[in-house]
């Protein structure tokens, strides 16, 4: 070893680290289980689902983007972007309507007049054009399997098309297009089909329940039957259940558990967008709104983690142009909670554009990772920021490491790191964070070696490290309604907050936007202490 040039040594180390990350292991032949709130592999090690949504439930009945890129290329790029999983949607009619299922891809696109897309499919995915649409769906599963991408099959809607509205007849059991018996036939067929695909690790039984028919008794009756149907056809998959009001509300589970004949396979899913709260984010003070919405989300769904169920946040995301204030503020709050609770997730969304959406050809998707023509990534800083969530912070099965904190900055998706010579505190990837501890005296210390404590010397100065937790400026409180401003009393007697400036240096500044103002955005001063037990 000693004779190897340094560079080779580093490469070797990084290769070993790379392959020892659990979620980057090949996963295609694996069954997953629910073990308390964690999704784990057969050895009991956590597998964090870092998924992206890939719709195949719209009228053309084909996963989006295949007119722009080969399916294998899309699957490979999903891995390259750091995701290990796809939530692949399907409309109920795909397995149950024989007329529709008999269409080839060519017929399906011709029927809709999508000749330009068809030409694109012919050049990018020539093997698909004469396949029946169900075979094309399976071919996408094969491409994902070949690239070691896990899949969750999501029954998104009944009638192929854009989802969802209160009045589309697809919202709840008993609606015009939502017959529970037909739904169970479809689940049975898809679950049976999935036995041929070891990478299909879960099934999301129905997307975004909604509308006037919603009621708790029908939910238990049909969701339990649906779960049993899937499990009987395919006992390998996780069974994923969604809640009321567009999958935002699972609070009814607080006092009535689901009763199933099988164990270790049950997962719940929820959706959380900026627009879930209409325009609340931009019309209120972000500290206040974040507090109120976090409490609500806690009550409606996140409590399930505490009850010992995995929670799959199967839709969230933001307009990547950065100009939607409501989305931007929501995302800062979302990132804090997503890191803290370390839930499994599926980003909305992969596609840069649609073949056809709501009657319009080639609609651009500003929440999509790909750009409009799928030639590249829409916003690489957005992806970089989200990438912190792709790796687990916590979970069973790793080496035994003492639990500690990292100091997470939701706005950037980075953590506070120490740089030496000269000593500075900067933001950088959380995986490089040294272990911080939060002492009973409210100091934030780096305890490896000679202890050092986060310290505020004075306004407008970089944050620094002190050697004693009794020095001025080393006691830190989480203030404001959001409890995300890290505040201290500096040596000069002023109350200060940590902040971050353009070059990612951690600074000591006046606390900003603590309450009431709605025009002011505090996010550069938001930090959250996140528990970490590295795998
Ligand atoms: C099946 O699909 C065809 C073609 O889209 C459609 O005309 C028909 O109404 C569908 N049948 C049912 C029962 O949904
Ligand atoms: C759970 O379901 C089983 C089988 O249907 C039934 O026998 C049992 O009474 C149910 N338990 C509860 C608490 O509802
Ligand atoms: C959350 O639930 C608790 C206890 O049930 C209740 O006191 C609180 O008001 C709820 N908060 C929200 C925002 O719904
Ligand atoms: C990417 O997102 C950032 C942050 O939201 C924004 O400032 C930037 O303008 C976006 N870039 C593009 C190309 O949309
Ligand atoms: C970043 O800004 C701080 C404060 O102005 C300064 O002390 C530091 O040298 C800067 N760092 C770099 C790398 O430019």
Automatic annotation (TrEMBL):
Hydrolase recorded as keyword: yes
Source organism superkingdom: Eukaryota
Entry-linked Pfam families: Cellulase
Molecular function GO terms recorded: hydrolase activity, acting on glycosyl bonds
Keywords from the named record: Glycosidase, Hydrolase, Signal
Secretion signal, residue range per the UniProt entry: 1-29
Keyword Hydrolase assigned: yes
Chain ranges of the Glycoside hydrolase family domain: 70-350
Family: Belongs to the glycosyl hydrolase 5 (cellulase A) family.
Name of the featured protein: Glycoside hydrolase family 5 domain-containing protein
Organism of provenance: Eucalyptus globulus (Tasmanian blue gum)
């Amino acid at each position: 070893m000693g004779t190897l040039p340094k560079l080779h040594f580093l490469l070797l180390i990084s290769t070993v680290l790379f392959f020892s990350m659990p979620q980057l292991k090949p996963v295609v032949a694996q069954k997953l289980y629910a073990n308390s709130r964690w999704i784990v592999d057969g050895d009991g090690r956590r597998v964090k689902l870092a998924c992206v949504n890939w719709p195949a439930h719209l009228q053309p009945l084909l996963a989006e983007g295949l007119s722009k890129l080969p399916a294998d290329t899309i699957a490979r790029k999903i891995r390259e972007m750091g995701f290990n999983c796809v939530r692949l949607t399907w409309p109920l009619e795909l397995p149950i309507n024989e007329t529709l299922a008999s269409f080839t891809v060519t017929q399906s696109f011709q029927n809709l007049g999508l000749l330009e897309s068809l030409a694109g499919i012919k050049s990018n995915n020539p093997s698909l054009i004469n396949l029946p649409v169900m075979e094309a769906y399976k071919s996408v599963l094969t491409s994902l399997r070949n690239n070691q991408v896990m899949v969750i099959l999501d029954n998104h809607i009944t009638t192929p098309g854009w989802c969802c509205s209160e009045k589309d007849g697809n919202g709840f059991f008993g609606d015009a297009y939502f017959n529970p018996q037909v739904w169970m036939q479809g689940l049975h067929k898809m679950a049976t089909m999935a036995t041929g695909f070891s990478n299909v690790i879960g099934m999301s039984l129905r997307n975004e329940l909604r509308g006037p028919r919603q009621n708790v008794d029908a939910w238990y009756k049909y969701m339990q039957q649906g779960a049993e149907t899937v499990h009987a056809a395919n006992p390998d998959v996780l069974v994923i259940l969604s809640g009321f009001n567009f999958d935002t509300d699972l609070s009814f589970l607080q006092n009535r558990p689901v009763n199933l004949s099988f164990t270790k396979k049950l997962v719940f899913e929820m959706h959380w967008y900026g627009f879930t709260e209409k325009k609340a984010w931009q019309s209120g003070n972000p500290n206040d709104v974040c507090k109120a919405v976090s409490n609500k989300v806690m009550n409606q769904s996140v409590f399930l983690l505490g009850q010992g169920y995995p929670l799959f946040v199967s839709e969230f995301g933001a307009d990547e142009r950065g100009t939607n204030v409501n989305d931007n503020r929501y995302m800062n709050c979302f990132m804090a909670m997503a890191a803290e609770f370390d839930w499994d997730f599926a980003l909305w969304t992969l596609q840069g554009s649609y073949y056809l959406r709501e009657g319009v050809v080639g609609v651009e998707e500003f929440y999509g990772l790909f750009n409009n023509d799928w030639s590249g990534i829409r916003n690489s800083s957005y992806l970089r920021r989200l990438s912190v969530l792709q790796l687990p912070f916590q979970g069973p099965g790793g080496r035994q490491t003492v639990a500690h904190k990292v100091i997470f900055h939701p706005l950037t998706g980075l953590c506070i790191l120490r740089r030496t010579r000269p000593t500075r505190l900067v933001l950088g990837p959380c995986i490089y964070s040294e272990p911080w501890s939060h002492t009973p005296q409210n100091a934030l210390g780096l305890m490896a070696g000679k202890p050092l404590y986060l310290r505020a010397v004075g306004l407008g100065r970089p944050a620094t490290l002190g050697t004693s937790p009794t020095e001025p400026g080393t006691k830190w409180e989480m203030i404001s309604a959001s409890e995300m401003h890290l505040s201290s009393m500096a040596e000069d007697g002023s109350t200060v907050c940590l902040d971050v400036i353009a070059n990612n240096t951690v600074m000591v500044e006046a606390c900003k936007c603590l309450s009431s103002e709605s025009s002011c955005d505090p996010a550069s001063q938001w930090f959250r202490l996140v528990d970490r037990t590295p795998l």
